[in-house]
Amino acid sequence: MALLLLGSEVRAQVDTAKQERFSFHFQNTIIGQYKPSFSAPYSGQNSLQPGEETQVSVTATLFTAARLWKGATLVFNPEMSGGSGLSSTLGLGAATNGETFRVGDPKPAVYLARLYLRQLIPLGGSHSFQQGDANQPAAYQPDSYISLTAGKISLTDFFDANDYSHDPRSQFMNWALMASGAWDYAANTRGYTPGFLGEWVTPRHELRYVFALLPKTANGNVMNWDMGQSASQTLEYSYKYHWRNHPGKISGLAFYNYAGMGDYRQAVANTNPPDVIATRNGVRSKVGGGLNFQQELTPDVGIFARASMNDGRHETWAFTEIDNSISGGVSVAGTRWHRAGDTFGAAWVNSGLSDPHRDYLAAGGYGFMLGDGQLNYGRENA
Hints:
This protein is mainly β. The chain has helices at residues 175-178, 264-270, 355-362, and strands at residues 2-11, 22-35, 53-69, 72-83, 109-122, 127-130, 139-142, 145-153, 193-201, 205-212, 231-243, 246-259, 284-298, 301-310, 324-333, 343-352, 380-381.
């Protein structure tokens, strides 16, 4: 498979001598992907299609932010996206293009991505000047603080961060490399959700918790505001350290989702062909977690690794059909060849399904991304 990434970003010039009241940034990313034809003994409605294929995706985001009062920032991001992933982002748990979404219509659409208010509460001690960036006006920010955020957010903006493998617009594009594959994080079809987030941050420790809404149906775009019947909670702790004077970080994440999920075992036992949607007859949960590691080796070389899993008893609800995943890789900055904006990276990700999920697909069931009508199970490698 050959991959081509083209991207451009326009950034405002920052006067580092003073703080900014407003911040305006813009990104535009175009990704073209190609795969040759391959032989397949059978295909289902959710298979990776065996024919030769070329697909292009495009996104554009306007990042606007304003400092309202001391420590308070209002963020507003309209976004446009269009195009498609390979085979309409079907047939792979670790889909190859993190800029595409599971939407049926590839025509460009404009929507509200983020709208939230964030309040920082300093805990005393030192301050550092933060250069202006997307959704961040240039400002002196405390090195230790508590923050409260409420509104429409992307959980991946705050959780599961990794300096070397997190942003599909400038790093690895695979879904299971931009985030932990088995973290079924709360989001609508395009990756955003209303939520309330609390953070405690010091130079060495970080602790985050979010309560967020889930969609009314799996892979849905309409969120369920009945929080007694459906919601998501995620907790993450990160420890930052130095090894031989090079920074590193290790994080542990746990999540708990509950919604009207179907049950894979019940679907195999009670419906023919098995239909997990037909078993959505009560509130069920999905529990999981993951570890995330990064380590700078030299100022321009770093390594990373992730491992994640969930219980896999009930249907995937928001992210992707992966129940366990492990990944790792290396990233090299272009300063070595005198092009600081370049990055060379190599990574590997191995993903799998739980026994109930695997048996459901093998019996002819379908999820919202996987399902061949039958299944000869094997782990997925990228």
